[in-house]
Automatic annotation (TrEMBL):
GO terms for cellular component: extracellular region; synapse. It comes from Scleropages formosus (Asian bonytongue). GO terms for biological process: maintenance of synapse structure. Keywords: Secreted, Signal. It comes from the Eukaryota. It is found in: Secreted. Residues 68-211 form the C1q domain. This is Cerebellin 20. InterPro entries: C1q_dom, Cerebellin_Synaptic_Org, Tumour_necrosis_fac-like_dom.
Length: 211
């Protein structure tokens, strides 16, 4: 009888142990399922972020490809193709450069002599002025003014009666707003002489946009 009671106790304890183990196993499986769900969620988020990043990169590349060329602006012009002198005049005159080496964006207008900034940004401009008095001892005046919206930003002035030929160059960087006008003017009494060598030039380009 004692042996039977012990066997029953052992069997009952064994059943309790199995039940406890099953419960712990179920809890472990639930925990594992939660972890797997969280991992899957994180993976999906990372995949979505990666896809979004690639999409942004691709969009930027497409934008640069199709619209990058539209953001370029550069020109380089000379006064004339023939031996000819412009001036002198009694009043200030705008210099209209007629020979175009480059006019990317068509922002320089040969008819008006104006460069119109297509967008806000930092621009670089260079002007070279050359004059020829014809003979030594004759007064020479190679002078120009670079203006932005009619305001003087730089100038060249070579006036003397010792050199038959003289020249000057100015290079500068300016910040412009879209629609600003840039042009070269010649003061009264000055004159520029050019030839097929293209001695008098006006060059400008957009260094980088600010908007």
């Amino acid at each position: 009888y004692c042996h039977l009671i012990c066997s029953f106790c052992c069997f009952h304890y064994f059943n309790l142990t199995i039940t406890e183990l099953n419960r712990e196993l179920e809890e472990a499986q639930e925990t594992l399922s939660k972890i797997q769900g969280e991992v899957s969620c994180q993976f999906l988020l990372l995949s979505a972020c990666s896809f979004q990043s690639h999409s942004i990169t691709l969009s930027h590349a497409v934008f640069s490809l199709y619209f990058g060329a539209a953001s370029r602006s550069a020109f380089s012009v000379a006064l004339t193709d023939s031996s000819w002198c412009f001036g002198p005049f009694r009043t200030e005159m705008i210099v209209k450069y007629q020979v175009s080496f480059l006019n990317l964006g068509n922002d320089y207008n040969k008819s008006t002599g104006n460069f119109v900034a297509p967008r806000s940004g930092v621009y670089v401009f260079a002007v070279t002025a050359v004059s020829d008095s014809g003979s030594p001892g004759t007064p020479l005046a190679a002078c120009v003014i670079l203006r932005v919206n009619n305001l003087e930003v730089a100038s060249i002035s070579e006036k003397n009666d010792q050199d038959q030929e003289d020249s000057g160059t100015v290079v500068l960087t300016v910040q412009l707003n879209a629609g600003d006008h840039v042009a070269v003017y010649m003061p009264p009494g000055c004159f520029l002489c050019d030839s097929k060598q293209h001695l008098n030039t006006f060059t400008g380009f957009l260094l980088y946009s600010t908007k």
